[in-house]
């Protein structure tokens, strides 16, 4: 049966997801929709998708190996490929040796039978995608390493290997003889001739010592393979020879073989450690390596003059958990002087708690000093009135245990005078598995820096929270907030991000046995937020909902009333097929918004008669204002000129390749942008297929691709890590494809920078200038749009476009790299060289 005639089962569709997109399918319905379609057609459809463009083709053409971006090849994928796809017989041994995505794609796109399977359905490819796939097949060296053997001696094999796109990227090479692995060596020797050809530092040479020599007594096939990718660099057929090594040479070669094998194993272990994926199964081992084997790290001594009170809430917690919580406090390190106050203790539990303190003192010599005359607090109002303004109050519920350095790290985080509260990262442990020090840890919450907007939707700061006496005396503790009273106090205090410290370490672990009802907690928090915003005009607090169906049962939603005027500014050139749906989607949803809008189109020398007629028709009926622009494409300049032509209170910069999904999108953007403390607001953008294209930017310090869109390729209904995709939150930057800013603030910052960033980087530069002026930048999913990314200008992949992007990145780093050395909303536990929130690394 021909491949394009074979129809796909649900299992085949699931494998196609993994083969093309490197991930599992979203929901069962996706498989059912595609079941029964020809496999060749499905492969064509997936390979021309927006997700494959952004997550594979674009990265390959930038010289970034897919192995750095994806999980390892799924188990069973190669078996399915060999059993299902049409391949030449010569491809099978190459697939058997494929260790990564680059090698797998190289084999497939080099294979004539596989390429032929697309010909019958090639019409589903756009021209540029078909051209790129052809280049991958015809010129795989563009995307991976090349090399050659220069000399074969009795001692080994000498040659060179280089990635033409990234000549300084290190690698290893392997020697195979007749299909069997023989030895490996690093590519680290200087080669002037290769440096002259490809640039870089020139460390592209290798010498592989042959442990047992080569089998010269018979003809053999010698292959040099790139270690990380499995790419075949060169194959040589060698005739038989007669000399044989001496016994001493054999022993030496055997010893070198052992050394080489150990080096290879160590390199692979390091690579696995580096690429360990973030998931609940991986975290227990990560915790063991970082927090137990690695110790607690640097612990500072607590200041002697800093009074600290630890408030332990024991309500609803059994005696065993209470005792372990108090034992954890008794074992605190770092020299912090603290006293204890217990809340929520009934009369029947108080004798037991006193006895725990007594036994701790007997066995450790450490006394749990009670605050005042009694250990137990019955009068919360009197307790708060008795606090000194500079006192630190740490709320540590007995539903979990504090890490040994929890108090000293919270105190250290609150050392700056302006910091009035602090919180830290947390996880959970299964107390059914054994004692606190033995149980496996799981479900980490690696939190962003303090974000008042995120806190207004979910009490993400967690159960272990510290506040100063001054704050608590001012706002009090609400009995109605129950166990969320400290977080409620922090919300009502109205502190700025600079006034709240964040400890990027796991300093509190929740007990699995003390479960919380998400729905009940959401109702409590909904009431807390309503009380906090009671009397604030134009703010409505509601149960959480999301237009794409993201489910966050523990969150709430704030809707802010909008009014006033906004100018939607859209640069365009021809492209009527993009512009018309964009304008129509704005017009369709105009009545769903209270904000009065005007549409300004900056026409960059449109020549298409249909586009000109459409612009004339829009202008004639007063639907838009058209501003002509001539000259080189300069996105920043075009938007600046348009901003000078309107008196609207809010400027909304919009690409012509967008389509509105959220009916009230303008009200959402403008109501946030008009807040005095907010500088820039950006929306959630989707690809045509509904996958996320942009959910804010993440600044990944220390890597070449330091700015990356969050959420790329995730299903639209995916809430993201800690719900970030579906919640309004602070972001280092948002994209200019949909960006709103109050006009007076835009002018205060001087608008976009058309000289330094005419095409690329202008949106990020404006956001960083806003942060620098103490304005916050927000991402909000309340404004959700489709975005056919860069359709008008084309992707910045080749020639001059790549140079423009590289220059913009270099200027951004030069201008802002020292100011924003860390993205405070991207937790330090996450790797900086993979998809955001996807892999773990020990925090610096």
UniProtKB/TrEMBL annotation:
Residues 248-275 form a coiled coil. It holds the Pfam family Glycos_transf_2. Residues 568-695 form the Glycosyltransferase 2-like domain. Keywords: Coiled coil. InterPro entries: Glyco_trans_2-like, Nucleotide-diphossugar_trans. This is Glycosyltransferase family 2 protein. It comes from Brevundimonas guildfordensis. The lineage of its organism: Bacteria, Pseudomonadati, Pseudomonadota, Alphaproteobacteria, Caulobacterales.
